[in-house]
Amino acid sequence: MIRFIYGNDLSTSPRLAETMFRDRAGQFRTRLNWDVRVDPNGWERDQYDGPDALYCVYVLPDGTHGGSGRLMPTTGRTMLNDHFSHLMGGEITSPLIWESTRFCVSPRIAGGAAAAARISTALMLAGCEVGLRFGLSHFAAVFDAPMRRIYRSTGWAPEIVAEDGAGRDRLCLGLWEITEEARAAILARAPEGLELAPVPAPLPGRRALTAARDDIDRARIEGKLRDGLEAEAAAAAAADAGLSAPDARAA
Amino acid sequence: MNERLQSIVESVPAVTGAAELRRLLERVRAIYDMDNCIYYALSLGGPKAGHEFGAMTYDVAWHQRYEDVRYRDCDPVVLAAAGGFAPIDWADLDWTGRPVRRLLSEAREFRVGNNGYTIPIHGPGGQFAMFTISKQCPEEEWRARLADVAQELLLIAHHVHRHALEINGAAEPMPIPNLSPRERDALALMAAGRSRAQIADRLKISESTLRVYLDSARHKLGGLNAFHAVAIAVKGGAIKV
């Protein structure tokens, strides 16, 4: 089953969150030997795992993490622009382009390569479907060279627009064009037994809604406070001017 | 070039306040055959945090009623848009609960439309705005229509938002756009009148990737489409023709 979940709502699904961050440690630290931070709980998390991050998650029948990717619009802060802009010679920013990071299939799943391929395909399909729904043009991602084969096997291969380094550690910047044809190609290659339940809408859950309400209230109060202070300052300035005017006349 | 977008591009600079914004939204409504169109910033962010700005094509009485009853505090659309960046089809929201059901039935009386789509825009310093369209029509028709216009609405939403920040003095000082060499090349070739196929061929990239360069350049320059971006880049001296 595919679920979209905002960072703010992860705490309402503690089992899913825990297995996701642990699986990411297994994937990125243990298997790929990336220079990522793993906390004392064994969770791999970085500064982009904030309240606004949108996770596309494949949830296993037992409620744990089967695979996931992290989505962010390139109009906000992205890994791509903060760390990899040298690959393109500049930043990529557009409301039509979202970045995908930390694409990962759980190392714990049973069923070997076939099961992993099913999960990868389901994640790519979900990404493509929301992209189409929202009118996006592309996803962008930076990944290790060996991932190319995995992406290609899902039926939706990225176009590599920049590379850096050599061998297995070679970094690739890939772009996926979001089209109906891409969706059809994924479906055509979809392995037997792929669960193709309707892709749910990415919506904030209970926690994210509460946080949103608080943010709106805070901004309103801060705005009012500042307006009040500005009005006071303006009144004080006017009073000063009023006081000094007669003095000036007297002088 | 898309005529619908072109028509909006030409209308945006004339917007200097809420009244003109309303006229622009009426134009969007007409061009995209919708019942209503709204741009509303609940916070302009930065030095204007907490300041609101916007306009809507709704019946004025509905807006008044909405504010009087403070429906915004329970409106599932506002909350969902505040809580995330993904666009929202109203049909996917939870419309249960007494105040929400009352909001829904009153909105119906004011002909808001049974279908709606809201694009949230979030920026630095608590900046938060929504761009919404709505229409009374069967669900099937709505879905087909949305698929056709979703991308253009996303562009218009962000463009109107940027303009709203500027006219309200809330825009961050626009840095000199940091175009990448590829973006610059693509714009320059476009300015020279080359077709997309020719440009892609020349730069040894696919047309799909060319779209990414052009679109990223477009966004950095504040254009609504590639041609608009070329015009801005030439005017601002970012590229030479």
Given helix and strand content, the structural type of chain A is alpha+beta
**Mean of pLDDT of chain A:** 89
How much is the radius of gyration of chain A in Å? 24 Å
Q: What spatial form of chain A do the alpha-carbon principal axes imply?
A: elongated
- Largest sheet, spatial ordering of strands of chain A: 1-2-3-4-5-7-6
What is the quaternary state of this protein?
Answer: heterodimer
Alpha plus pi helix count of chain B: 10
What order do the helices and strands come in, and which of them pair?
The complex is a heterodimer of chains A (251) and B (241).
Chain A: E1 2-6, H1 14-31, E2 54-59, E3 65-73, H2 79-83, H3 85-88, E4 97-105, H4 112-134, E5 138-144, H5 147-153, E6 159-164, E7 171-177, H6 180-189, H7 206-250
Parallel strand pairs in A: 4-5
Antiparallel strand pairs in A: 1-2, 2-3, 3-4, 5-7, 6-7
Chain B: H1 3-11, H2 18-31, E1 36-43, E2 53-56, H3 60-68, H4 76-83, E3 88-89, H5 98-109, E4 115-123, E5 127-135, H6 139-167, H7 181-191, H8 196-203, H9 207-221, H10 226-236
Antiparallel strand pairs in B: 1-2, 1-5, 3-4, 4-5
Helix pairs in contact in B: 7-8, 7-9, 7-10, 9-10
Could you characterize what this model shows?
The complex is a heterodimer of chains A (251) and B (241). Chain A is an alpha+beta fold and 251 residues long. Chain A has seven helices and seven strands, in the order βαββααβαβαββαα. Chain A has helices spanning 14-31, 79-83, 85-88, 112-134, 147-153, 180-189, 206-250; strands spanning 2-6, 54-59, 65-73, 97-105, 138-144, 159-164, 171-177. Chain A has a seven-stranded mixed β-sheet with strand order 1-2-3-4-5-7-6, sandwiched between helices. In chain A, β4, α4 and β5 form a beta-alpha-beta unit. The longest helix of chain A is centred in the C-terminal third of the chain and has 45 residues, at 206-250. The N and C termini of chain A lie far apart (83 Å). Residues 245-251 of chain A have low confidence and may be disordered. In chain B, α7 crosses α9 (207-221). A five-stranded antiparallel β-sheet of chain B has the order 2-1-5-4-3, sandwiched between helices. Chain B is globular and about 60 Å long. Chains A and B meet through α4 and α7 of A and α4, β3, α6, α7 and α9 of B.
